[in-house]
Amino acid sequence: MEVNGHTIEAGADLRGADLAGADLVGADLYGANLVGADLVGADLEAANLADADLSWTDLRGADLETADLRGANLTWAILERANLRRAKLEEADLSGANLRGADLEGADLEGAKADEGTTWPRWYKKKAAGVIFQTPD
């Protein structure tokens, strides 16, 4: 699949790619490098992003409903107002990530990592979801 001149496939190097508003429904981006990519408003419903590096990625308003983000690196990612309903985030690293206003209804965060820099929706019960909190040494 080609989007905005970028090949969308497992393991793709998409560092800094402009994929804002892209239709990536069901895309296989397993293990892809998306560091610093612009995915604002992108439709990633049911996409496979397991083990992908999404650190410093802008995902504001993105649709990630039922996406597979198991083991993904989301450190310092911007996920404000993102739809993460029923997303699989087990063992994902959310250290420093901004999840303000994100919809996490039914999302699985068992074993996901977070730290004091991670911001959450006000109502979200992080500890009940099985999130592991890392503290600085």
Describe how the helices and strands are arranged.
Layout: E1 2-3, E2 6-7, E3 113-114, E4 132-133
Parallel strand pairs: 3-4
Antiparallel strand pairs: 1-2
Model description:
By secondary structure, the protein is largely without helices or strands. It has one domain: 3 Solenoid (Pectate Lyase C-like). It has strands at residues 2-3, 6-7, 113-114, 132-133. The strands form two sheets. It has a two-stranded antiparallel sheet. Strands 3-4 form a two-stranded parallel ribbon. Strand 1 and strand 2 form a beta hairpin. The radius of gyration is 13 Å and the shape is globular.
Please provide the count of β strands. Answer: 4
Largest sheet: 2 strands, antiparallel
Helix content: under 10%
Number of domains: 1
How many angstroms does the end-to-end distance come to?
A: 43 Å
Q: Assess the beta-strand content as a share of residues.
A: 5-15%
CATH class bucket: Mainly Beta
Using the 3D structure, state the CATH architecture.
3 Solenoid
Strand order of the largest sheet: 1-2
Low-pLDDT windows of residues: none
Rg, alpha carbons: 13 Å
- Any idea what the CATH superfamily is called? E3 ubiquitin-protein ligase SopA
What sequence of helices (H) and strands (E) makes up the elements?
EEEE
Structural class: little secondary structure
